[in-house]
Amino acid sequence: MEYLNPQYVLFAGILLLILVDFLRHSMKINKKTFMHYITAAVLGLAIVFDALYGNMDIHLFSEVPYSQFAVGFMLFISFFIYLFIISDKNEHSVAIDISYLFAVLGSTLVVLSSNLLSLFLSIELLSISSYALVYMYKSGNALEGAVKYLSTGIISMVILIFGISLIYAGAGTLSFSSLHVVSYLPFIAGVAIVIAGLGFKSTLVPFHMWAPDTYESSKSSVTAFISSVSKAAGLIAMIRIFFFALPVSSSFVTALFLSIALITIFLSAFLASVQERIKRILAYSSISQAGFAFISIAVLTTRGINAAVFYIFAFAVADAIVFLAYDMFEDKNVIYKKESGEIAAISRIGAISFFIGILSLAGFPPTIGFFGKLLIFYALFSSGYFALVILVFFALLVSTFYYFSILSEMHVVDKIMKNKNRSPIKKEQRVKEAILIVLTLSLFVGVIFA
Predict the structure, then answer these.
(1) Which residues pair with 336 in a beta bridge?
(2) Most buried residue, 87, 228, 355, 438, by CB count within 10 Å?
């Protein structure tokens, strides 16, 4: 049973896809649908095995209290995003299936990494697969988005490996369980540089520059994966390193983390409020959500970490919903805020899901986003950060402004009631709407984890 972990299932699924694709070409079978079914089945089995058997526990990878939950929700979101991707009428390359499974595998390995070397390799596995997804799942500016993502990814890779080398110089080890003999100066310098390297993956200011352009250039369904699963992996890597591994001064880490988190929240809120394109607003919103999660990590208490893990799940699901729903509208050239009134005319269920996803990101009850933000406020308040609670609440009000700048143009209820003579709905749109319904319901079901 020790090999029935989701990571082994994903790796075996990748090998199976490569083998079946080779046999398919040998037998000159052009139909790719069977390959997509295999990929979906592999993701589904990974979810089941995560629930039944947990995750692998070997030398470079080990579980922590939240890892089974974190891996489970990553697989859950990844499964439905993939179903959304393959529901398009055109057949996609098998390379997309393989890249997607590699990306999901990388994200789960990031959560389980117990060594800085395995963490670096896991992040690179996730990143390289994500670059391929951005380019291969063609959109108008796919090449531009992939190049920007790749160039910033290379920079973050160099920064991260330099920081890891400084930590090794100061501590003499890369294992999380052995970081106890510390040469202070190079060690602290390495910690600061590792924060910068992981900040690129987590889209924390000032390491966020790539995100808005890449998000806008990518197909929205691929953006849904990058903004939810990939970003969640980066934030959870922060938790794994700075709460469970590095024996650094809590005052140093807290001051640095709080500064980055506050700048991320306020700057992204300001930049989002001056955007006219819907997708760029959603991109800056996603950056802001990372800031909210990061400010809870900065407390470095068990309550703060629990709140952060829950909030990462909350915003990841909501981000996936809004980007997947927007994928349906983007195909109909709904680009600017002033055009958002057409959303309900394209898909009623898509419009409602988009609306509820925005409400969750804004923190309105009874969505999971409200309870996630409530837990963050409680973690800050219980740790004595009263002034910080006021600042974060003010930032929350600012973010509500740009969310409602989209919603005010939608008139969702009026459009749904008046739009009775609609064109026939295609089968693939029905599938996408069913996926959005399941994810939207999870915004409310997920409240039980609070």
Answers:
(1) 277
(2) 228
